[in-house]
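User: Here's a chain of 192 residues. Predict its fold as tokens.
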Amino acid sequence: GNITIPKNVTFTGTTTGASPIDIIANSTTAVSGASNIEIDLSTDTNYIMQQIVLFDVLASQDADMYLNLRTTGGSFRTSSNEYEWVLMERKNGVDTNGTGSNGDSKIRLNWYGVGTTSDEKCIFTLNFFHAGSTNRTTVGWNRIGNGGDGHPAVTEGSAKVIVDESHDRIRLSLASANISAGGYVHYGYKRT
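Assistant: Prediction complete.
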């Protein structure tokens, strides 16, 4: 059952059951055949990290996924030399491969494309550090699932925005393809 406490209470012992992890937002509304997916980030600096888990991701054709960040209250960073990134990926039957950039207009999230059929869905887990502060936003991610040819693939990557500023939204898009996803969960990990 639920307990309602009508006043402020100070606990002197150890409290249990309270979590330092918030679900900031979530959606189980599927997106199908969209040119991009945009998700808000929190600008609350009490979060040491924000994590977005995007599930059941598919592409309309074999294509790589990209990420752009929006300056808080402004526009998406899409000019050259806005991001530095690196990724590595391993696909079944193929040696580990990867790439990177020290000055790009986007963050590339994978190497071997995104799956295109219902049995090739992937999950992207995106971790954002300093998104709400005026420090450089850093992104770490992984992708599990299938590449554009249907073989299992795993990806790890890291990136940063090359400017010290706050960011309040992300945009995910595919190169020359439309994106579909089953939904997402957006978590916030508190400092204390």
